[in-house]
Specification:
The complex is a heterodimer of chains A (212) and B (223). With 212 residues, chain A is mainly α. Chain A is 61% helix and 0% strand. With 223 residues, chain B is mainly alpha-helical. Classes of the chains: A mainly alpha (212), B mainly alpha (223).
Chain lengths: 212, 223
């Protein structure tokens, strides 16, 4: 998916099991475990892509294109759900508001990439938006995935890209908690949101209907 | 849904005063500054790969916000005065905020600042006041983390902090949902500076005393 000039950097973003850069990370994890809550994983599962490649404009491009795919998926998903016409009440107003947010996110990420922005992939969200229950379930997964995607790349980007992404990621987290609240599911089930690697994010997007 | 802001908590106009810049030195700023001297002295004590001073400072700032939140929810839970929904939120979120306190305290070790005293002035004993205050705290925490995260030098610490940042955003949305305010008020969450955050916290009057020392001590509310 990602056009990259350096296959090694690409591989490190996708697959590298991340070693803790610092023993502090283990301490952080230890403290959380003592509390009996799931703060683990942030460092145990690893920080996708932290290893190997230091932030650079070229890496920003790869990361932002990954996040662009997340935003394409979100916009496509909510627009498909609204076009489908099966939503009403709280779910419909959620979808309308969130679709608008996602369009704004997409515009920001695309603008940050300029001519390096990859084109929108095809998608099929028919199954994910077929009825209100399917929509609510898929929306929850998609928003959780978006949070994990942004968090997974936080340490990989330059300050400029970080600043842009940071304004977006907490709104994705709000969306996730919102749709979970509507469905009477725990809005914030863990003490920390665990990151996902680029490969995991692409896999998650494929499962939801983005044709990557 | 209507928008909610901190003015709802501004009982005596202190907040407006703070916003007008009449009160520059926020308590949390004092707190962080108090801690810093000792942190520098202790820096050499840490094991391998000690945290950078600037990271310690940012982490202690985060710890101060987590102390505030943990104490708030714990007191709310203990008050046994809240509605079922509010009490459940206080219980779950309180446990998470206490975990955050523990995480930052462990990470900082002896460099961790002490827990200040708090006086929540009764807002933990009324469901409506509790939720409005929770919304304000959580939105504030999101803006504070966002303002500080980019300053962290350690990639591992940054990645951990950002995962806590999004949990605060989930809490903010949850509390907003409970009180009927739009959980995501706009497409973007803006960062706030320490000075801005400190002014708001100071204006609440919830922080009633500075820690007496900067040595490590067990916070009262850590489970």
């Amino acid at each position: 998916m990602v056009a990259t000039a350096d296959p090694r950097a690409r591989a490190s973003m996708d697959e590298a099991p991340i070693r803790n850069r610092s023993s502090r990370a283990e301490l952080l994890r230890g403290g959380a475990c003592a509390a009996g809550l799931a703060l683990a994983g942030v460092t145990a599962v690893g920080l996708p892509g932290v290893v190997g490649a230091a932030p650079s404009p070229a890496q920003d491009e790869r990361v932002l294109n990954l996040l662009l795919m997340v935003e394409y998926a979100e916009v496509g998903f909510y627009e498909a759900a609204l076009r489908g016409g099966t939503l009403s009440g709280e779910l419909e107003s959620f979808a309308e508001i969130v679709a608008e947010h996602e369009r704004a996110h997409l515009a920001v990420v695309r603008e940050a990439l300029g001519s390096a922005a990859e084109p929108e992939p095809r998608h099929d969200f028919a199954a994910a938006t077929g009825d209100p229950d399917a929509f609510a379930d898929a929306a929850g997964r998609l928003e959780d995935l978006a949070v994990a995607a942004y968090n997974g790349q936080a340490a990989n980007v330059t300050p400029k890209a970080f600043a842009a992404a940071a304004r977006i990621v907490s709104v994705e987290a709000r969306h996730a908690a919102w749709i979970r609240s509507i469905g009477d599911r725990p809005p914030a089930p863990d003490a920390t949101d665990q990151p996902k690697s680029a490969a995991e994010v692409r896999e998650g997007l494929r499962k939801l209907g983005l044709q990557l | 849904m209507s928008e909610l802001d901190l003015a709802a908590l501004d009982r005596d106009g202190a907040l407006e005063e703070a916003r007008d810049g009449l009160s520059r030195a926020g308590f949390l700023g004092t707190l962080a500054a108090t801690g810093t001297g000792a942190l520098l002295a202790l820096a050499d004590d840490a094991g391998a790969a000690p945290l950078r001073r600037s990271d310690v400072e940012v982490l202690n700032y985060a710890l101060s916000l987590e102390y505030l939140q943990a104490a708030f929810y714990t007191e709310a839970e203990r008050s046994k005065a809240l509605s079922k929904r509010a009490a459940e939120a206080a219980r779950v979120v309180g446990a998470v905020e206490r975990a955050h306190v523990k995480a930052f305290s462990s990470l900082l070790g002896r460099k961790a600042i002490a827990r200040p005293r708090f006086d929540f002035q009764g807002v933990t004993e009324d469901s409506g006041d509790f939720i409005k205050t929770a919304v304000a705290f959580e939105d504030l925490a999101v803006a504070a983390y966002k303002g500080q995260a980019a300053k962290l030098k350690s990639g591992a610490v940054l990645a951990s902090a950002i995962g806590i940042h999004t949990v605060e955003a989930r809490h903010a949305a949850w509390m907003r949902y409970l009180t009927g305010v739009q959980p995501a008020a706009s497409a973007f969450d803006e960062p706030q500076t320490r000075a801005e955050i400190n002014q708001v916290v100071k204006a609440t009057g919830f922080v009633s005393s500075a820690p007496r020392t900067s040595a490590r001590r067990s916070p009262r509310y850590t489970g």
